[in-house]
Write the structure tokens for this entry.
Amino acid sequence: MADNGYISKKQFIEELRRYQKGSVTRRHFLGVTGLGAATAVLGAAMPALRPSSAFAQGIGDRVVLATWPNYHDTANFDAFTDATGAFVQVNVFGSNEEMLAKLQAGGSGWDVFVPTNYTITTYVAEDLIEPLDVSKLSNYDAGAFDPRFADAGTVDGTLYAVPKNWGTTGFAVNTSHDGGKALTTWKDFFDRTMDDFSGRTMVHDYQLTTIGNALKYFGYSFNSVDPKELADAEKLLIEAKPHLFAISSDYQPAMRSGDAWLTMCWTGDGKQMNSDIPEIHYVLGREGGEIWSDYYAIPKGAPHREAAYALINHMLDPQVNAREVLAHGYPVADSRTNALLPPEILNDPILYPAQELLDALEFGAAATLTDPNRAELLARFKSA
Amino acid sequence: MTRRERNWLLVAPAGAWFLVMLVLPLSFVFVFSFGERGPAGGYVPAFTLEQYANLPARWTAFKNTMVLAPLGTLAALLIAYPLAYQLAVRTDPRWKTLLLVLVIVPFWTSILIRSYAWIFILGGQGIPALLAALGIEDVRLIYTPFAVTVGIVYGYLPLMVFPIYVALDRLDKRLLEASSDLGARPFATFWQVTLPLSVPGVATGCMLVFILLMGEFLIPALLGGGKVFFVGNALVDLFLQSRNWAFGSAVAFTLILIMLVTVAIYMRLIARLQVRRDDVAIM
Amino acid sequence: MSKTFGDVEAARDLDLRISPGEFLSFLGPSGCGKTTALRMLAGFEAPTRGDVLIDGQVVNQLEPHRRPVNMVFQSYALFPHLSVADNIGYGLRQRRPRLARSVIADKVERALETVRLSGFGKRRVWEMSGGQQQRVALARAIVNEPKLLLLDEPLAALDRKLRKEMQIELQDLQRQLGITFVLVTHDQEEALSLSDRICVMRAGRIVQVGSPQELYDCPASRYVADFVGNSNFFEGRIEEVDGALARLVTGGGQTLAGRASPGLAAGRDGCLSIRPEQIRIGSEPGPGCIEVTVQNRIFLGEHTEYLVRHGGLGNIIVLAPRQAEIGARGFEAGARAFLNWSDEAALILNPD
């Protein structure tokens, strides 16, 4: 679709369907609205949505999964139900903060959840996560995983989480508006926002990436909690705010419709938009930024623990995992799964950026999750 | 059973409801507001006024809410009144039901879906594209305070239309004839008879919309593009993102307090305007 | 003039001249078009055909607020949000150019005096009794000194005693102010006692216009005779019309004489009307007397009403003055009695 062409009927329907599924972007606006939690409650309150099992193999008739939108191939869940009799009840969430908030509040009813690397130590410290019994995970082969994306699952020598997918946080730019001058850095991102992209830029409604990428503008660490560095980032963000189109993690619709030309963006969204609209490029800021890895884990007090192990083990099966990648387009750290993937995926520069770009990236740090100053900074930025 | 016991029994369900749904949660909020945030978020019991001392950090959110709630209510009133008047006074009774249903129908649809529709209407491919075709370039509507106002007025219109409609519909049409008979021109009749007698409906509508607007967070989040920040949004962030329950409780309690005081003042003003006790709104 | 609502003809060929200072009543059962006639005068309805003239000017297109006419509404239509004084001053406040506040206050005060409500000005209207509200409604209308005051069943909501009082007050007021009053009522007694002229309506048409006495003594039709006062009716064939008198033979073969109403023709069906109070009842037979059996007796204070039965004429109602009975026991049910009346008291009418 041309940048200023009209959205087609088909695209509109797709957008709407994506929205209806609650799957607009990975950490999308459900987080903003708090509706993720509402979905979870509703799902649990409607037993009609669950089939009754005729042959529960001692693992119960269902398993509750808290995960991100657009992050699974539902056929894999159906296969799990066929094999075990346990129905997979999926609740989608908007942010790690929201997941943590829900677990902290208690009574989540989840059996499996999908935390991001930097949150796991906090879950351990808060005693909200169950150590994993590897004997129940026959498909888990520690040696098959790239340690960069698997290490965070182990805290103080105890395995708490096994890798699911990894990805990066960069920005997506509609190159038909860059006047021939490509954007390559976070400095470009903010400077051009206040110049030729004024009124066309979106940043996430998410402390980790929005503050982190503003920190990168100055060359500071993505994870800085240094008051002076945070003050610089805040000044930049507040200066840029009048030039922003929106502060929202739900950026795909505006990018696709041509209302927005530039946005902070995650791997999968970048891939999806680029596939449909080739002039939208996915760029990793040269200064660095975020690299992340998601994990499967079991929360303390999971009501169907056996089913939880069964589900995680099922998802770790390389055949199953390969089908997942083909459905959502995020890379995996499992070499067994990569061996099953077609070369065009393994060579895709959006999924697998050049090494020198990857080298500059940082994993999110636990401190950012718990630091009240970063949360307050984001609140000041949003209310400025 | 004495009469007194029986009376207690009769009010017991309402009392229990009131206790469980209102008093209990409010008490929690009140107690939490004197606590502290845990190291990873949540709530740690304490007795400190720190959270209340921190309130100025959400000054903008309070200020925006205190501006938006009255303005949004006024805007809804200005649009709802003519609509309700048209429906109640000018519309052929045969069409009334149909038109009333048309006013309600949007209410049956999720506010999310409806707000999303506005994102398309106000977005670049919507009204701005239309204006561009007419030669008016570069009009930005979506993710502005204007978009939020449109969304709010649209979302809360039925709540404003209905009480006013009922008040106008119950208005004795002979009073209008009497006014005309006594020499009042149509506008004078409206100003001196119709309007004062519809005050109860206006009061109810304004109250409903105002209270809901004070806590609004969804429409600003969706149509304000995250740039228009109200107390409701601050609360969502405090509880669901930064997990600062203590500060969130202080903000929530302050909002409730402001709401109660405003509503109390408003009720007194209306009571002064109010002339017939039996005309007082239908809530 | 005429008025139709959809297919319904509410008022048809109304042709009526109302004199200045007159008290005229529209009398008829509900749905006879009397209220429509009033509303056309007020300007709430426009005639479908014909004209409404006030002081020789056609006012058909004149909106109600431009007409020199005021109305007292059925159940008053007082403004609930205004005080008594503000209700009364409402019309004055609409005047352009504006009247001075003090002028309005004076006029309101005088209107309150006129309706004997001095000191009630600050009250809320719903604090007032029905009779007081009625007077406020009157004051609200007359304070504007209209050329024409329209009253739509103004006393219908009051109890009987209050109604009597208000009737007297209305009449006094009208004499005092000299304003033309047009009253709509279904209460014949009210119409008879108040009006200079009564316009009897039926199914949208005027059937007779005249003074109360004319209507009572010389009703133009059985309908009027029946609606205005009570009457006994004997149906039959008109045998002879001789100037002012006529004779009628009833179905039972009885020959009765009476005044001839205009337009009677011998050989046609007719109807004799005799008012109950015009019939004398006695215990002795005499010339021209008919013999009846007393069926029932109702003691009414100053009168006694007898229901009697005659072999040929059927049931007859007789109203006997009390005077004739003092000392006498009157007639018990089952007693034999004799009736007679003068031919001049009876009226022979065309049947409707």
The longest strand of chain C covers residues 232-242. Chain C has two domains: 3-217, 230-349. The mean pLDDT of chain C is 88.
